[in-house]
Amino acid sequence: MGALRDSIDNIDAAVVHMLAERFKCTQRVGQLKADHALPPADPAREARQIARLRQLAESAKLDPAFAEKLLTFIIAEVIRHHETIARS
Ligand SMILES: C=C(O[C@@H]1C=C(C(=O)O)C=C[C@H]1O)C(=O)O
User: Fold this and answer.
1) By its UniProt entry, which NCBIfam families does this protein fall under (predicted)?
2) Mutation test of ligand 1: which of 75, 82, 85 has the most ligand atoms closer than 8 Å to its C-beta?
């Protein structure tokens, strides 16, 4: 079980690093949107991302509903960041 937990810890670390990189990109998008007076959220883009992620999840044998919940949770945080940038 120790080896499995080592792998779990490595995967958790990778997730954190990947999320940090994703948020760096989304912060830059948020600044561009604020510079061009664009709205923080883009529901059409989100719908495409969710459809794509659900398909990826299915082929990876991951529950698509879980994948959608996770992406929606992350995007909600990004939109909060964009709203903060727009107000600043
Ligand atoms: C990052 C963007 O802003 C928002 C956040 C998104 C995301 O985290 O992937 C996607 C769409 C937008 O609602 C974007 O428009 O690309």
Assistant:
1) CM_mono_cladeE, PRK09239.1
2) 75
DSSP string, 28-44: HHHHHHHHTT--S--HH
Answering whether pTM is above 0.80, one says yes
Fold of 2-87: Chorismate Mutase Domain, subunit A (1.20.59)
pLDDT in tens, 57-75: 999 999 999 999 999 999 9
* 79 ligand 1 Cβ < 6 A: yes
What is the rounded CA–CA span in Å between residue 66 and residue 64?
A: 5
CA-proximal residue: ligand 1, atom 10 (nearest): 46
User: Does residue 78 have its Cβ closer than 6 Å to ligand 1?
Assistant: yes
